[in-house]
Amino acid sequence: MPRVVIAAGGTAGHVVPAMAVAAELRARGAEVSFLGTRERAEAELVPAAGYEIDYLAVQGLDRRNPLKAAAAALRAAAAVPAARGALRRRDADVVLGGGGYVAGPAGLAALSLRLPLVLTEADSHLGLANRLLAGRARRVCLAFPIPGRDGDRYLVTGRPVPFRVLTAERGPARERFGINPTRRCLLVVGGSQGAHSVNESAFSAFAGAPDRDFEVLHVAGRRDFPTLRERLAEAGDDGYTLLEYEPDLGDCLAACDLVLGRAGGSIFELTAAGRPAVLVPYPHATGDHQSSNARWMAQAGAAVVIPDAELEPQRLRDVVGELLADDVRLEQMTAASRSLAKPDAAKQVAEEVLAAASPAPERRATSD
Fold first, then answer.
1. Of 84-88, 234-238, 282-286, 289-293, minimum mean pLDDT range
2. What are the pLDDT digits (tens) for 221-234?
3. Degrees (nearest 5) of the Cα angle 307, 299, 317?
4. What distances in angstroms separate CA 88 from CA 1, 51, 116, 354, 363, one per listed residue?
5. Nearest CA to 95 among 4, 158, 226, 195?
6. What is the C-alpha to C-alpha distance for residues 292 and 286, in angstroms, rounded to an integer?
7. Measured between alpha carbons, how far is 218 from 208 in angstroms, rounded to an integer?
8. CA neighbours within 13 Å on the CB side: how many for 124?
9. How does strand 31-36 pair with strand 215-219?
10. 331, 275 contact by CB (below 8 A)
11. Selection from 119, 127, 129 nearest residue 264 by Cα
């Protein structure tokens, strides 16, 4: 039984696809545990999914503040010995770097122990840790083709998505959320923490709007949920369903006809479910990768893009209302979204991880 340690954390955008791979690995008989941090999404999501997790003391790299960036780099360096200890305790055969703050120290620890390392990259460019580690990884699994990142080391798999996204059914999902089966539905995704500009503009545009002829399912995220809940109670809108958070978007995507949200790695969940979108790229994303992600969907005809600086309620009302009223265009966008899907991404990544796992006797001989 191969022992796999997955290093992933920081946001649900890293943790959810890593857990999709973990589920595939577990189904194939692997023993899976995680490396993460105590303060971020993985501390809640990973144990809830039934996986053991070891914690490292690391934090994000703030490139706008040199002092904070230096402190984060020092903490990352200090975390490498702790990661080595965790990998030894778990008797790991292979390490999967799933992104986030822990991936760098965990990857360095794996290489120092001569453990095979597989990396995943969810964005249209390699993140800092992956740039540093890619040259020594057995395989780098890419969500998108990246210029200059080709050859045997790189494999375009797409971004792994939860099994629920692939299997959720429209009828039961709508029943769960109390959505009228005969009406169109807009899904607003604020993310695990909450995309404030998206949340605020969407709520202002649609909550309590007397002329709205569709229902709204709004996953606001923890930051904005309490305030929006109070405002929704005042608006008294029975056709506006507000949720704090969903660990995966399977039922939400099955229930809706159109999605409004950011353009992070979760766009692969949209395509897996075949959902068209109105995308608002986060303007401060590293390397502006969300704009690239949004263009990828828009160029295929699966999305309309609104820059964050141009996001305001009236424009949202116009764009969303026009799309939901146009059955032909919505069907065309739905087909375009499905054409981009890579539903087997989690299986492909799991296969690469298992292929990289070296036999235990050989591993012990080289890591002692």
1. 282-286
2. 989 999 999 999 99
3. 40
4. 16, 18, 14, 19, 11
5. 4
6. 11
7. 13
8. 16
9. unpaired
10. no
11. 127
d(CA 202, CA 193): 16
Single-letter code of the amino acid located at 201: S
Please check whether residue 338 is in contact with residue 273, taking contact to mean a CB–CB distance below 8 angstroms: no
What is d(CA 30, CA 275) in angstroms, rounded to the nearest whole number? Answer: 33
- The answer to whether residue 2 scores a pLDDT higher than 50 is yes
Task: Give the chain's end-to-end CA distance (angstroms, integer).
Answer: 21
Low-confidence winner among 75-84, 96-105, 180-189, 223-232 (lowest mean pLDDT): 75-84
Of 293 and 73, the structure prediction assigns the larger pLDDT to 293
Residue whose structure tokens are 């999605």: 259
**Would you call 78 helix, strand, or coil by DSSP?**
helix
Residues 6+ apart with CB under 8 A from 184: 213, 214, 215, 257, 258, 324
Question: Running DSSP on this structure, what letter comes out for residue 249?
Answer: -
Model pTM score: 0.86
